[in-house]
Amino acid sequence: MNVEARPRRSDGTRAAILAAARARFAADGYERATIRAVASDAAIDPSMVMRYFGSKEGLFAAAADFELRLPDLNAMPRHRIGHLTAEYFLQRWEDDGTLQALLRVGATNEAAAERLRQIFAEQLAPVVAAVAPPGADVAARAGLVASQVLGLALTRYVLRLPPVAAMPRDDLVRWVGPTLQRYLTATDPA
């Protein structure tokens, strides 16, 4: 009996839910998007969304297909890498509400936190490896860069801590850039 592998029906349902969720989160934002709206868009019962993803937070984490689109740091003047990286991340946080929403959800939902960890491990570490000194602990450096950009985003865009939220972008770059520069290129932490 020759049975060809066919996609399971559940794979199609899951894909339809994720496609509907991505569109709905993009159109409405995390706060206004609802499980009912996603289910309606996917032409399924809301209970199916809950069955596959458990919660709105779980659905968002799974649907957050986020590409950091990091620049090639090797193409930048070496002495400016930290400043240019700070500028880049501030622009990304301001241009894309999805990353802000993922950070908000990631603070309280393990699936979203895991998604953030994956994004930074898979996308940031290779960029750090390209500019770090030979023999450097790339994972540690990438983690430190992530701590700076995530901490900055949390205080500026999520918590809106007044001094940080009100600070002009150029001032933030001047403060954070040297720290990122050290994490990315310094031969030792001193």
Entry summary:
The chain is mainly α and 190 residues long. It has helices spanning 9-32, 35-42, 46-53, 56-63, 81-95, 97-106, 110-131, 138-158, 162-166, 169-185. The radius of gyration is 20 Å and the shape is elongated.
Based on the model shown, name its key terms:
mainly alpha; Tetracycline Repressor, domain 2; Arc Repressor Mutant, subunit A
Structure characterization notes:
With 190 residues, the protein is an all-alpha fold. It folds into two domains: 9-63, Arc Repressor Mutant, subunit A, CATH 1.10.10; 73-185, Tetracycline Repressor, domain 2 (Orthogonal Bundle), CATH 1.10.357. 73% of the residues lie in helices and 0% in strands. The protein has helices at residues 9-32, 35-42, 46-53, 56-63, 81-95, 97-106, 110-131, 138-158, 162-166, 169-185. Helix 3 packs across helix 4. It is elongated. The model has no long low-confidence stretch (mean pLDDT 87).
Question: How is the topology of this model organized?
Answer:
Blueprint (H helix, E strand, L loop, with lengths): L8 H24 L2 H8 L3 H8 L2 H8 L17 H15 L1 H10 L3 H22 L6 H21 L3 H5 L2 H17 L5
Helix pairs in contact: 1-2, 1-4, 2-3, 3-4, 4-7, 5-10, 6-7, 7-8, 8-10
